[in-house]
């Protein structure tokens, strides 16, 4: 296959940041993706519907001329979140989901939930009104090994929550383990998972072999090769419970390349080329559209995009920038460590 035309894709997990960084990265998403679920872990976080409305306006203000892009807003769940405000946001059409960050799990998560019991009034209201909960599925207790955080979260937090509130719709974001894949597959309903571009391509060796390479460090951290292969199998299977959420997360290089570097990989520039490569390797190009364009909208109760994009296989490798320049500073672009031959040649 030398070209493929699919419905315009969506990104169901995206970090745009704010200010100069937002202005510097927005076009890398909006030139290809029609919609994206926007993460709320700003400083300060997006905790109320009013915060989300203001953030959405800031995003749309810096959207390049001619780009058609819809930011889907989320709220940052805290132990003090108002159920009434969440319900108002949902019925206003502004709020697509609420995000659970266990306190300390990732970038700007220190204000997240420490005691799930204190968040139950909001979660019960969400279950009642049908508003999805997006979860960063890791525990943060120091005695749990960082590579086991997802599996322990499923056992000690997520499964008890879903048994208590079976009607609550839950998205396990950036699934990184076979444990997560198997748990989603075994669920009888109300559970799905997003998978990132980079977790389909790298395992933990990318971070550590040959020296510490900070631009492959993310949270949840990349796991063993058997987990990467389980994610690939899920992504290319066509199973409607799995869809793309890039978790593309820009940090300026000085904050990545330092004694205590930030977690995050910036993939918005070349995600579609990387995914076409992965699906071609797995002899599953005909299922790429389901993963990037169909499964996510179905899960979130939206219609798939009518616009199309075309990817073409180039004879010579496609050249992407090693980094982009933003008003906040340089941001290194994800390097998949193999040549990319697929390119988006016709945008929506």
From TrEMBL:
Cofactor(s) needed for function: Zn(2+)
InterPro entries in the cross-refs: Amidohydro-rel, DHOdimr, Dihydroorotase_CS, Metal_Hydrolase
Molecular function (Gene Ontology), one example: zinc ion binding
EC number: 3.5.2.3
Location of N6-carboxylysine modifications: 99
Keyword entries, A-Z: Hydrolase, Metal-binding, Pyrimidine biosynthesis, Zinc
Binding-site residues, Zn(2+) 1: 13, 15, 99, 247
Catalytic activity annotation: (S)-dihydroorotate + H2O = N-carbamoyl-L-aspartate + H(+)
Free-text cofactor note: Binds 2 Zn(2+) ions per subunit.
A single Gene Ontology CC term: cytosol
Highest taxon in the source lineage: Bacteria
Positions contributing to substrate binding: 15-17, 41, 136, 219, 251, 263
Binding, Zn(2+) 2: 99, 136, 174
GO terms, biological process: 'de novo' pyrimidine nucleobase biosynthetic process; 'de novo' UMP biosynthetic process
Domain Amidohydrolase-related: 11-320
Subunit structure: Homodimer.
Family membership noted in the UniProt record: Belongs to the metallo-dependent hydrolases superfamily. DHOase family. Class II DHOase subfamily.
Function: Catalyzes the reversible cyclization of carbamoyl aspartate to dihydroorotate.
HAMAP family associated with the record: PyrC_classII
Protein name: Dihydroorotase
Organism, scientific name: Rhizobium leguminosarum
Gene of this entry: pyrC
């Amino acid at each position: 296959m030398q070209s493929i035309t699919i419905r315009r894709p969506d990104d169901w997990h995206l970090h745009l940041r704010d200010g100069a960084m937002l202005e510097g990265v927005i076009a890398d998403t909006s030139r290809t993706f029609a919609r994206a679920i926007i993460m709320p872990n700003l400083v300060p976080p997006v905790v109320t519907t009013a915060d989300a409305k203001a953030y959405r306006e800031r995003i749309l203000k810096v959207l390049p001329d001619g780009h058609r892009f819809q930011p889907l807003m989320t709220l940052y769940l805290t132990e003090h979140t108002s159920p009434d405000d969440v319900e108002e946001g949902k019925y206003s059409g502004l709020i697509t989901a609420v995000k659970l960050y266990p306190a300390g799990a990732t970038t700007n998560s220190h204000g997240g939930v420490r005691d799930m019991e204190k968040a139950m009034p909001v979660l019960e209201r969400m279950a009642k009104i049908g508003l999805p909960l997006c979860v960063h599925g890791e525990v943060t207790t120091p005695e749990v090994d960082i590579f086991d955080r997802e599996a322990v979260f499923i056992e000690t937090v997520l499964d008890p929550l879903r048994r208590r509130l079976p009607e609550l719709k839950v998205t396990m974001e950036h699934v990184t383990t076979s444990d997560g894949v198997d748990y989603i597959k075994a669920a009888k309903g109300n559970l799905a998972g997003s998978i990132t571009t980079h977790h389909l391509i790298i395992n933990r060796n990318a971070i550590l072999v040959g020296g510490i390479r900070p631009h492959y460090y993310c949270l949840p951290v990349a796991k063993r090769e058997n987990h990467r292969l389980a994610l690939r199998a899920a992504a290319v299977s066509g199973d409607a419970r799995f869809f793309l959420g890039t978790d593309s997360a820009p940090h300026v290089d000085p904050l990545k390349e330092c004694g205590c570097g930030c977690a995050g990989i910036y993939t918005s520039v070349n995600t579609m080329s990387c995914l076409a490569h992965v699906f071609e390797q797995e002899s599953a190009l005909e299922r790429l559209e389901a993963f990037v364009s169909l499964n996510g909208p179905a899960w979130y109760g939206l219609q798939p995009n009518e616009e199309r994009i075309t990817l073409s296989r180039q004879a010579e490798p496609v050249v992407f920038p090693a980094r982009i320049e933003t008003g906040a500073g340089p941001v290194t672009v994800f390097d998949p460590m193999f040549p990319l031959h697929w390119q988006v040649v016709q945008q929506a």
